[in-house]
Design goal:
Strand content: under 5%
Shape: rod-shaped
Structural class: mainly alpha
Order of helices and strands: HHH
Number of strands: 0
């Protein structure tokens, strides 16, 4: 069974399209921000942290070698002289070894975190990829369809129904009946007045009496 279209508000469709455009812009901005943050984190871990601690390992190895060299020199100077102490040199070697050990641990931690970060980025991209693809193509298609709907409804609302005279079925029938009655009543007298008067039929003459024989 066909039904008439009920167009309540085309403006609501226009407002919905505006909201869709705003959502697409915000969603794209959010996804772009996350991608930038992931790249920043990856660069910070692979370049800054790994490079920094690798350099620190080399510097602290050199510091440890210098501390050990100072301690060896102190041992040579202390030979035959009990008044010379090597306590400070030994402490410097101990601190240099500790700092080198911390730097080496940092390098190992960063190297373990790099594949973990790569795995997390891959998981995120696999989940965000459908959303990214839909924002690139699906939403554009949806907004195009919505625009066609708005134009079709506007064209539909612009149509005007043809205006023709209409008779009241009850009043028109009554007026038609009255006109027929009046027409019949006026026609009867006119016909009687105009019709010729029929001639009188002559009475038959008496037959003549028979002759006497």
């Amino acid at each position: 069974m066909s039904q008439d279209a009920r167009v309540l508000s085309v403006q609501a469709l226009r407002d919905f399209k505006v909201s869709m455009i705003k959502f697409v812009e915000e969603a794209r901005g959010a996804l772009s921000g996350v991608d930038m943050e992931l790249r920043r984190m990856r660069d910070w871990l692979e370049r800054d942290q790994l490079g920094y601690w690798t350099t620190q390992v080399k510097k602290r190895q050199e510091a440890l070698m210098n501390a050990r060299s100072d301690l060896a020199k102190r041992h040579i100077a202390a030979q035959g002289n009990s008044s010379i102490s090597d306590t400070d040199q030994k402490e410097a070697v101990r601190l240099a070894q500790k700092r080198l050990h911390i730097a080496e641990e940092k390098v190992q931690v960063v190297k373990r975190l790099i594949p973990v970060l790569h795995h997390a980025i891959a998981d995120y991209k696999s989940c965000a990829s459908p959303m990214t693809d839909h924002l690139s193509g699906g939403m554009e298609k949806s907004m195009g369809t919505l625009e066609k709907m708005v134009r079709s409804l506007e064209d539909y609302l612009a149509l005007q129904a043809p205006t023709t005279g209409r008779l009241d079925p009850v009043g028109g029938a009554a007026r038609s009946a009255e006109g027929t009655t009046a027409s019949s009543g006026s026609a009867a007298p006119a016909a009687s007045a105009d019709a010729p008067t029929p001639a009188a039929t002559p009475e038959p003459a008496e037959a003549p009496a028979a002759a006497d024989r």
